[in-house]
Amino acid sequence: MKKPAFPCLVALLPVIAPVPADAQSFTTADEIKPILQATKSSWVALREFDGKDLLYFTHLESWRCGLSQVRFSVNSTAATKVWEMEPCHEGEAQPNALKLADHLPYTVLPLGMATSVSVVIVYDDGSEDRMDYDRKAILMP
User: Fold this and answer.
1) How far apart are CA 25 and CA 61, in angstroms?
2) Mean pLDDT across the stretch 16-43?
3) Is residue 19 predicted with pLDDT exceeding 60?
4) DSSP the chain
5) Of 94, 99, 117, 131, which is most buried with the most CB atoms under 10 A?
6) Distance (Å, rounded) from C-alpha 49 to C-alpha 46?
7) Predicted TM-score (pTM) of this structure
C-alpha cells in the first residue's frame, strides 16, 4: 500500500474539510433552533393571489421536525390559533420532506385582511420563539 505524500495533511482532513450535515436529518430542537432563530424574518410569507391573501408557513413546515407546535394570529399578538403541520416523517430517508398529500402550507384570508401576523413556535424541548410581522415585511412581490 502506498503511503500518502503528506500524512500530516491526511490526518487533518476532517478538521479542514468537515463533512457537511445532511439538512434532512435535522429533527430535534437542538439542530433546528439556530436555523430558525437566524431566519425569523422568513418564518411566514404573505401573497396576494386570485383576490385573496395567502399566508404561507412553508419555511416552518420545512423545519417542522424538532417543533412541537406553531401558533399564529392575524391582526393580533395573541398567537393562539394552532397551525396544523404535516407530520415529520421519522424513519424515512428525508423526514423533513413535504409530501403535501392532504395538507397545503398556507391558509386563505380575505384580500388585504392581514395587516399584521404574530407567530410563536414551540420546540420539542419546550422552549419558544416569537416573531411579529407587519404586512409589508412579509408581502411577496
Assistant:
1) 14
2) 77
3) no
4) -PPPS-HHHHHHHHHHSPPPP-GGG--SHHHHHHHHHHTGGGS-EEEEETTEEEEE-HHHHHT-TTEEEEEEEESSS---EEP-PPPP-TTSS-TT----SS--SEEEEETT--SEEEEEEEETTS-EEEEEEEHHHHB--
5) 117
6) 10
7) 0.80
Residue 13 cell numbers, joined: 482532513
Sign of the dihedral through C-alpha 128, 80, 40, 121: positive
Query: How far is residue 84 from each of residues 69, 131, 141, measured CA to CA in Å?
Result: 8, 18, 26
Rounded to 10 degrees, the C-alpha dihedral 57/101/87/137 comes to: 0
Residue 96, C-alpha cell as written in the block: 423533513
pLDDT of amino acid 102 = 82
All structural domains of the chain, each given as residue ranges with its CATH number in brackets, are 26-136 (2.60.40)
